[in-house]
Amino acid sequence: MLTLAWKNLFHDRVRLAVTLVGIVFALVLILMQFGLFLGFLDTSANIVERSGADLWVTSPRIPYVNGGSPLSESNRWKVLAVPAVERVDRYILAWVPWKLKTGAIENVQVVGYNLDSGVGGPWNVVEGSAAALRGEDTVIVDEIYKSLLGVSRIGEVFEISGRRARIVGFTRGIRSFTTAPFVFCSFKNALNYGAGIIREDQAVYLLVKGRAGVSANALKAAVQPMVPELDVLTNEEMHRRTQTHWVFATGAGITTLLGAVLGLIVGVVVVAQTIYAATVDHIREFGTLKAMGASNGHIYRVILAQAAISGVMGYTAAIAIALTVSEGSQGGNAPILLPPEVAVGTLALALAMCMGASVISIRKATRIDPAMVFRG
Amino acid sequence: MIEIRNLFKTYGHGSAAVHALEGVDFDVDAGEVVMLMGPSGSGKTTLLSIMGCILRATSGSVKIDGREVASLPEKKLPGVRLEHFGFIFQGFNLFPALTAQENVELTLKLKGRSAREARRQAGELLEQVDLSEKAGRLPSDLSGGQKQRVAIARALAGDPPIILADEPTAALDSQSGLNVMQMLTRLAKQRGRAVVVVTHDSRVLGFADRIVEIADGRICSAELGMEKTA
Q: Which top CATH class is B30-53+75-229?
């Protein structure tokens, strides 16, 4: 029966091509939409996910990480008094103006972190080094934003809030969800760039690291009573809060999510129609098989095998296209992320869609009017 | 071999009901060639379908080799078809993606033959219908007569006692049609098969042992074939 399924598919190459185009289109659509959504989620809270902090001590009820407001440095000493706390670093994330050489202004988000601990600092530095941020008025930006910020090489000097900012390195893949790129620098530099927004005795966040073996939740339970007027969030909570804000509180997130869901629905419909049409094309042959004495089980096996073969072939082409597009998207502002679990999940989805769609055709194939078989 | 009594088949219900067969009695013995004739819509194909356990009768009795099959549960019928029947269709109904050899092998595999055994038997069957040299050809590369010979080889696969043929000569030229009928007659006479042929083709009536005419779902005449009456 597998031979029949295989030969049925490959006998009519045009039909097979049409089937595969339908499946590939549907799967690429699904992969792109979900990849975009995953990229959206990743970008929206990457700075939290990669911070390395266990806890974030914040002003009360901030909606997301980019919406923090200054808090007093004195809170740092209160948190440090907790025995389970290893260290507490002041952290700044603030919106400041970046002046291009043309005189134009771009908003950026300056990220000031403790260079000694590295908590909250940049990652994936591909040119220069984070250590160079110890120099005065030094910053690191992501290479994606070179064009936006008018940057071409290390050593160039710009202005942030009217102060010098010398480029000492570039990261790769640290995107900002907003149009304002992240600019990493030392906490001290960030205070200078944020002068007028943040006083010297303030920080926007306190990033807490617990002692070895202390869970984030236990650490939070120990720290919160020390700063009852502030919010204490685990890194996971801050991550989720930020993602939730961007996904549900802005139209952009809902749109992307809706796009992903619509991609799935359209994909399922396209695959269902394609597989159904491919099966119906062979309906007379299934009728003949049935007349000859093949059981419904035999016919199921042929149809399911055809669907599975089509699904695997379509998936192979679709994942190749999607991975190529995903690779190409890494240099842009809207990355399409396709982690291995999505790739594997999509294969399962492709098989499920194809075989599920074929069930509709199975019903048709096994209920053929026998008179059809006997007509010329 | 086939014994049909008081067979009724009705399509639809109430005022939309169409009575395809009304009280048909019909027998076929081993070694006999019976031709079913009648105008379109007379019920020939319905009778053939019920005889072949493809279609269920509304009421009546259908016995194959003395075994009542009309009341068998649906899932038992494919087994009855496999064991007892070989089918030949007007449009050949060969699998276009399979070669002549593979078309015959498929039936044998359905009947549980191993791949090697199926290959051997299919080769022999194609030899019997004088198509050995075309075994590797797809149906699209064969003439109408050759296709029908492949269909005959397929119908003979697994040695079924009854061959049901629906207009087997309709798509063939005169000579090919005669050849096909000679083959079917030989099957009946030399190998004791019961052969039932639905036909409109008056050229082949000479091959019949009996000619049964159906009109409006009823058997209106049954007579000996022309050669028998001569």
A: alpha beta
